[in-house]
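Page 37, top half.
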Amino acid sequence: MSSSSVVLQLFWTSSRIQRKRAYLTIAAIAWGTVALLLLLAFGEGLRKQMSTNMAGMGSGIGVFWPGETTKGWQGLPPGRPIRPRIDDVAMLRERMPELDGIVGEMRSWQTSLTWGRTTINARVTGTTREYGDLRNHIARQGGRFINDLDDEHRRRVIFLGNELAEQLFAKEEPVGNVVLVNNVPYTVIGVMQKKMQMGTYGGPDASNAVIPIQTFRAQFGRDRLANVVIRPRDPDQMKAAITRVRELLSPRYGFDPADEPALGCWDTVESGRITRNVLLGIQIFLGIIGGLTLTIGGVGVANIMYATVKERTREIGVKMALGARPAWITAPLLLEGLAYTLTGGLLGLVGATFLVAILGMIPTDGNEALQFLGKPTLSLSVGLASAGILGAVGLLAAYFPARRAASVDPAQTLRYE
């Protein structure tokens, strides 16, 4: 009989003797696996949803806003307001080929929007075509965002945020209808698709209205920008791009490029990196909690292995006295520990998959908290992490009892009760 056959036969005999203990141990491993997988699945779902939420405002963008100088510069005193103009955008676009996109924003707060008998006050933004891509303003089917011709011809067209459209039009289709913006007629050309948005400046996009920037300039008589939005081709070059913008605008408005409050900037690449690190920390924390829960099952496996060694000490000693190889003693115990762990892990995986599927069916529409947290997700990385933890638990739980069994002195076992 080969060594592998002997090991399998010894393993099968031992498993039948310890049947009740084996069932309880497998149940403990299954419970720990369910806890581990659910925690990792919630962490993975939260990570994915947060990534989606962060992309809602736009991916890899930097947002400048007007500020006030805090340093004197070339004889000019501090405390001067810095207000970029609409033509600065064209200059920056020409001088900074490293940018993938740049737009200016002009804002009018509490602007009157009227359709039929409904009048509400909302935020109106004047901007250009690239804004739709940079700020993730995607039109619903049947509509569109503003284009270059709208801006060039100063067309009175308007793009509505989805919540703003619902407030104005209720259940009617907005596209093609005419709304009054401060009593000036604008044709609705599109409504923004619903999106989750974690970051905002000035308010959520869902309650915002967008018109061409030249139309805005003509109606409201302004040329000062409320914000400048940039997106470098390489997100890793964001800090260099921010510095370059300040250097180019510094001579125009007379401020020190190192005076950051003069022209504030929100670096979403950096804030996104910080958020991802926080989420990774949360995932690791949840994984540790799940791993500790699974360790309880591992302790159960170790206990049953130690009990097996103790009960069979005399038998093991006799086998070794008759010439049994050490592998015939240790291998069945290792195989037994792994078998209990993997069987419990497989049952736990099935249970966790079922629970995740049930939780995924819970509707989240209308519940902002659930929409923000996302749905638990079992991914390949979660599966590999749990498989690795299970394998380690099984090996460690069986290794030490097996080593103890292999070190038994055959002469002393004859006196063992």
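Page 37, bottom half:
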Amino acid sequence: MIELELRRLKHDRTEIYFRAVQPLLWLIIYGPVMSSVRAIPTEGVPYTDFITPGILVQSTTFVSIFYGLMMVWERDMGILKRLLVTPASRHSIVIGRAMASGVRSLFQVFIIVPIAYIIGVRFVSNPFYFLLAITVIFLSSGGFASVSILVASFMKTRERFMGIGQAIIMPLFFASSALYPVELMPPIVKEISIINPLTYVVDAVRGLLITGNISHLGIDMAVIFLFDVVMFVISSLSFRRIIE
């Protein structure tokens, strides 16, 4: 599945480039504007640096959440039916597809991080931390791609899928610490952020790339792993519904 995804990207990289435009606007315009306001406490970290992990994770999650759209298209083309008659189990198909989405998400990282560095974002100068951050993004992208596959198993048209995808991604984004610390959120949103997997992904990537504080990394990784396993199981159980 990953090899197939790489071949797709080799033949058409336009989507990857255009998807990077929105997160770069957040970093180049929104970050400096809010930095000048100085209204959000970031514990001494420049605001543009503070939101860089959040924007990065938002971009990769966006790719993963809409990955199911491709599977809806493949169902319409009859490709999924051929896939389901192969000896491969549904679990392996779902996990393979989810991990393929993780590969696609990593290309976003390799576009956004260099540009963030050029505009002045200061990253932790530890290659091992960078590799861990990439691993966190890769694993979390697989979990969110599984959410997308689950949604695709219920949505019969691409238009409905687009609407559901938008309804999922923005609440996840704003109920995480991507743009501001959890402490600033209203009480209800703060409670939601505790069960929001994106909160833990942002916290892990921010610690590894920006602050160097990895005291919560164990908890973050445990939550991300649990989220992946649960979503892999649920989306595998509902996978056959895609072609029904």
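Margin note: Residues 90-118 form the longest helix (29 residues).
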